[in-house]
Structures are given as structure tokens and as C-alpha cells.
Design brief:
Layout: H1 16-19, H2 29-32, E1 34-36, E2 39-41, E3 47-49, H3 52-62, E4 68-72, E5 78-83, H4 84-95, H5 102-114, E6 116-119, E7 125-127, H6 130-134, E8 141-148, E9 150-155, H7 156-163, H8 170-178
Amino acid sequence: MTESSESRSAGEPESSNEAAGKGLESWDDLQIGFCGNPRAKLDDRGRLKMPAEFKAFIERKYGKDFNAFYITSRDGLDAEIYPMPEWQQHLGKVFKMPASHPARKNLLARYSLYGDRADMDPQGRLLIPEELRNAGMVNEDVKVSGEGILLRVTSVKSLRENVQGKPMPANEMDELAEFGL
């Protein structure tokens, strides 16, 4: 027997998802940004097929015909994919630093070496810049991790090497706890 809406108290949630705060409306991905970490594969030409959930998010946030991205890296080991409006805001923060600041110069040099504009083709593919392809990001199983304003593409092999057999140090666990994590 189900409870009728008349027998519920005013303001009481209609479902367990609502009661737990898990209704679709409670998760505003347009405010939070990219979230999740689906698996994907870079093809032999170094193209990444945009995972469906991220493609759908891009269409909701930027429009159905949006296709302009900037792909770069800070270390050559993974790729950072920014929708162009997010890239421009990010770069604006970099340009606010003094031009002579060594960290600014180093970061811009890395962005210049590894980065390039990429337009998503009608099949939802992005070509990874040549320097990153040359660094080995071709024919790789990858994880595409949503990190708010950007997507990070990292090889599954590299992730395994960084995580397996390396427990998180106690001091890092303590630091995370300070942030409520």
C-alpha cells in the first residue's frame, strides 16, 4: 500500500531519493561542472571520442553546436581539455601574474609546448595536440576525469602505477580530513 499525498506532512519528500537529497534537481552540474571519470580510448591518430555524459553536459552548458576547446598539459603526462570560454578565463588568471614571475613563465612555456586549439568534429572526437601524441598518448586506454571546469585525460596504465601498491600517507589523509574529505 502506498502513502497518499494527503497523508504526508506538508513539505515531506515524495520519494527516498528526494529525502536523501538525491533528486536530479539537487545536483546542479551546470554550477559544479564536469564530474565523473568514464573510460575511453585514444585511437591510432590520437583522437579522443568525447564520452557521452560529457558531450551531453557540453551541449546543455554551451549549446548544441559548441565545439571549441583548448587542450594542453602541465607535465606532458596527461591532457587538460578546457572548453574555450573556460580556457580564456583560466588564461586571464595566468596573465594577472607579473610577466616576470618564474612560475608564470614556466607554466606558459608548458602550455605553449603541449597546447593547441581543438575543434570537436561531428562524431564528437577531439585531436590531442601533436606534442602530447608524441609523448605517447596514442592507442591508449584512458580515464577522462571531470574536474569542474576541465577534463583531464590520463592513461589507465599511468593511473595504476601511481595508485596501486602506494597507500595514501597518513599526513595526506589528515590534510584531507581538514577539508571534510
